[in-house]
Write a structure and sequence with these properties.
With 259 residues, the chain is α/β, with parallel strands linked by helices. Helices cover 45% and strands 15% of the residues. It has helices at residues 26-37, 51-62, 76-90, 113-141, 163-183, 201-206, 209-218, 227-237; strands spanning 17-21, 41-46, 66-70, 95-98, 145-150, 188-195, 249-252. A 7-stranded parallel β-sheet has the order 3-2-1-4-5-6-7, sandwiched between helices. Strand 2, helix 2 and strand 3 form a beta-alpha-beta unit. Helix 3 (76-90) packs parallel to helix 4.
Length: 259
């Protein structure tokens, strides 16, 4: 059961143990900062070597406990070891933001099956691997928790050359719904945040030149999103203010998909 708690509008995470997978850059780093600003203990988890460096910076800037853990979401032992390291550091895990990401763009007639499989292995199966490990820890703790996955507007609309990415993100939305259904009895909310193009390394990789200007023209907000705007949506779904929301995919797209 997901219990009722008085809504205060403070979005407070003081003392919460939070994991941000993909936290060494982009939306993940912005989310880690947002969590820290609200008082959470934050684990920076990524495949990059800079996890510890970013964790140290956030600890100094916001005065919270942090840990950096390098992790490969395609490897079960790596994920299990990561969760154990965070529990040893923080005592428990009550919040997970899962946003590891891979994108490589080809037309559907040209893309290699191995590239499709890489999208699925990281963006869908890898995210589930992390969610499953963390959910089992939350169930063991008996206090519930919040799980938020970053999906994409591409999970429900067609975008040219995004077949592998779209397949993986659409699979992720299906996963969110099933996990939300099954884990609600343990007090665990599971949701997604579906951004439009975001000004990150991945965004720049996918959108350059004319395709970028054409895309911006189609977005009513007439710009791409910034990382902190997506992190704010993740924060909302990570707090008690969102206790009555589960199994949803919150679209943050500047109006692109209202057409």
């Amino acid at each position: 059961m997901i219990n009722y708690k008085k809504v205060t509008g403070t979005f407070d995470l003081t003392g919460q143990g939070a994991i941000v997978v993909g936290g060494a850059g982009g939306i993940g780093e912005a989310t880690a900062e947002m969590y820290a600003r609200k008082g959470a203990k934050v684990a920076i988890v990524d495949c990059k070597d800079t996890c510890g460096e970013i964790a140290d910076r956030i600890a100094k800037e916001f005065g919270v406990q942090t840990i950096g853990v390098k992790c490969d979401v395609t490897d079960q032992k790596s994920v299990d070891d990561m969760v154990q390291a965070v529990v040893e550091a923080f005592g428990e895990v009550t919040v997970l933001a899962a946003m590891p990401g891979f994108v490589d763009l080809y037309r559907a007639t040209d893309i290699e099956i191995s590239t499709i499989e890489k999208h699925l292995n990281i963006n869908a199966v890898g995210v589930f691997r992390v969610c499953q490990a963390v959910a089992n820890q939350m169930i063991k703790q008996g206090k519930g928790g919040k799980i938020v996955c970053v999906t994409s507007q591409a999970d429900f609309i067609a975008i040219n050359k995004h077949v592998g990415y779209t397949m993986s993100k659409a699979a992720l939305v299906g996963m969110i719904k099933v996990c939300a259904l099954e884990w609600a009895e343990y007090g665990i909310n599971v949701n997604g945040v579906a951004p439009t193009v975001v000004n990150t390394y991945m965004g720049e990789k996918a959108w350059q030149g004319k395709v970028k200007t054409d895309m911006i023209e189609k977005i009513p907000a007439h710009r791409f999103a910034e990382t902190d705007e997506i992190a704010a949506a993740v924060l909302f779904l990570s707090c008690d203010e969102a206790n009555m929301i589960t199994g949803e995919d919150l679209v943050v797209d500047g109006g692109f998909t209202i057409y």
